[in-house]
């Protein structure tokens, strides 16, 4: 299983005019361990072109490229995985298409979602949202740290928390039971994405060393 401890989720709307590839390059230099490409507004061709550029950037680093929602894009570019929400393709259908070589992550908004994801063969669970966040407006109510702990007690899969996570609360999320934290604006909107990633990397490492 790849290292999911510092999981970057891209969002071009928050990039302050910078290209996704440039931000990912800086974030990788700062220490991100996984990159999820999330595109809600561009065309399929644009998505594929961008995904190929990011895949090329990550080649040889050991950092997996995960594609959000779009299994077709993940297959087209040979991504390492796909991340699916509760209204996206079922795990069983996705697994038939990708086989065992591609990671399948599932967003869980409650304990039942996480338990079902584990039973159906997901590789990891994204707990969403841990805290309220302005970067996604279609999410369920925030689960909070207690919600993270309940999901941790219910499943053995790797857990990645997402939603309103940054330097000020990443430690708490790890200590509540997450194996990693997924961040969007904390890196994408940072004046210096490399420095922001490095700061989060240090915070996460310390939280794991001193649970």
Please describe the structure with a list of short key phrases separated by commas or semicolons:
single chain, 211 residues, alpha/beta, TIM Barrel, 8-stranded parallel beta barrel, 8 strands, 42% helix, 16% strand
Summarize the structure.
The chain has 211 residues and is of the alpha/beta class.
- What is the SS-derived class? alpha/beta
Q: Mean of residue pLDDT?
A: 95
Give the CATH topology. Answer: TIM Barrel
- Cα distance spanning the termini: 21 Å
Share of residues in strands: 15-25%
Uncertain spans: none
The CATH homologous superfamily is called: Aldolase class I
CATH architecture: Alpha-Beta Barrel
Backbone CA Rg:
16 Å
As a percent range, the share of helical residues equals 40-55%
* Morphology: globular
**How many strands, which pairing sense, and closed or not: the largest β-sheet?**
8 strands, parallel, barrel
Domain count, please report it.
1
Tally of alpha and pi helices: 9
Order of helices and strands: EHEHEHEHEHEHEHEHH
In the sheet with the most strands, the strands line up as: 1-2-3-4-5-6-7-8
Query: What is the CATH first-level class name?
Result: Alpha Beta
Number of strands: 8
EC number: 2.5.1.3
Cofactor: Mg(2+)
Family: Belongs to the thiamine-phosphate synthase family.
Protein name: Thiamine-phosphate synthase
